[in-house]
Amino acid sequence: MVTQVLNWSELSVSPNGTVDAPLPTQRYLLTKDTPDDLIRGYLDSHPELATLVVGQDPRPAWDLAGRSIIHQPCKELSEFHWWFKVRGPAIQIVDLLNVSSADHIVMWEKAFLNLAAGGTYEIPFRTCANPGSVTTLVKYFSSVAAASVDSDVIDQTGLNLPDKAVTLSRFVEAVTVTYEKILITKRGQHYFVAPEDQLTEVASGQCDGGVVRDVVVTKPKIFHARGKAYSHGNQQPISGLPDVFDIPSMYLREYTGLISLMGNGFVTMQNMVLPESYPHNRQVPTPICAAFEEVIDGRYATSSSIRLAKDYEPGSYFHVECVNSGHFGHLVTQVISRLWGWDAALADCPDLKLLFRIRKPGERIPHLENQLFAAYGIRPEQITYLDHSTRIDHMYGASPLWHNYSPHFADPDIQHIWDRMLDHLLIKDQATPERIFVSRKGTTENRSCHNTKETEKYFADRGYTVIYPEELSLAEQATIFHGARSLAGFAGSAMFNAMYCRNLEQMIVLSQEAYTARNEYLYGAILGFDTHYLWNPPDVSHPKDGFSDEAYYSSWTMDLDQHASTLAQLTS
Q: Nearest 10 degrees: CA dihedral of 480, 482, 483, 488?
């Protein structure tokens, strides 16, 4: 139970202006058939630490009365890791399990990353079944120590470490062996990657002194797409175009505690990475954040580039930061899709301000964001823009209703957001073309088409008005897309104004096969028009059974001859 909510403003500031989050003040004692005197000896040590005893049932010899000790019964070794997740990081873990050397090693591999930086993992030799177990453990952890210095020396130690141990060795600061025990010291910080649907139950442990409250939780639902997707000319199967969406619960949450906004969408609450950090928060198997270098076991993220912010911003905020701030496509998918929670959050906290991050100091004036937020009805005085990493104490965050990654889905409730914006932007009684071709200027953009001009002419000759959305105001874009009956163009963010289409019958998307985003179809699935993808080979392909950014952003050529029959039918 949380007894005190910690605030950044209450923590001391170091001479260089930084503030460090407090280290955990708890430890784990892992027990299974452990002698009472061994347990009692550890219980008597370090009375300043809160102790969680996991494993066997307590006995009178432990003398638990009056101690700051929590006991959690656990019968199977495979269950222990759940309590690490629920209770959060520790400064010490002591493996008192009376098990084989193999089980000691498995437990270390599961538990070690739950230590804070500088924490220690201890295995007393009294827990080893026989002298051979001690020899095995010493040999194993000597290899881990060698690998922590240079992984190339592993074979020279006489023991080939498994990949998991080699990975963990990078986070071993030291291995100390005495005649009584092995002591492994942790190097570096790991952030716990909290699953969206388990966040509230693990928050109290991962965020000691923090509170997470569910303000709104929607019910999961099955949604049948209102428009169909068709693929033409593809050389390989095209994924990510489901007819039925399995839409999970959406959350509006309130966070109170030590919150750090570190840029590029990355948000932590003490040791825990918040779901607001992920462009695709339901990504399988693990959500990806731009700040992560790697995620181990799907739960522990590393990032050497993250540093705790110097600046502190008092107040209450609704977080809508995104990756690649300022990019139109990221704004309308990752940011706009979270605005469903704004009204409820504002009702819950009338002093609330929307918080948006500019990538770096002095980069730009957020004209685009101002217009989009105004279209939703958020006034300028309700918005705070930041251009640097910041610490705050109180935040609201909402799940995105748009998920352009496996599993692909869009919650149909997102149309309420689009309708509200359209009502504000639409220019009444303005004549607009029924057929529009959305093009891109220049040849240096991602996924540039080599024969753009030829493709534009093809569609112009068939009655399509060629437009460049970046040359139009948001109101003009909304009005033109609203009136279109046939929409064609190159795949990408220029097509995302489809959210304003209310009369559209079909969308023709020209793309290359290495581009795996499926945003265009999601618009059709919600708004009820068919989406036709005309696929072409990229100049650079993905590696076999792999992925590369170079292929994803590859240039390509629109093969008008190959697609002649399909185009004739769609544009007739």
A: 70
